[in-house]
């Protein structure tokens, strides 16, 4: 998973793991992202639609 930017979340929409390229693409380290809601990486104007689709 080191060469991908995958994001793994739990059923409630909280980040539980990220790929190695995540920091370069989204600007958050693994330590900063894990435990945070998915909406930290989704544009504000798209959040409602994306979260409804993902969860």
TrEMBL record:
Superkingdom assignment: Bacteria
Name of the protein: PAS fold domain protein
UniProt cross-references to SUPFAM superfamilies, sorted A to Z: PYP-like sensor domain (PAS domain)
Domain PAS: 7-45
Pfam families: PAS (PF00989)
GO term, biological process aspect, one: regulation of DNA-templated transcription
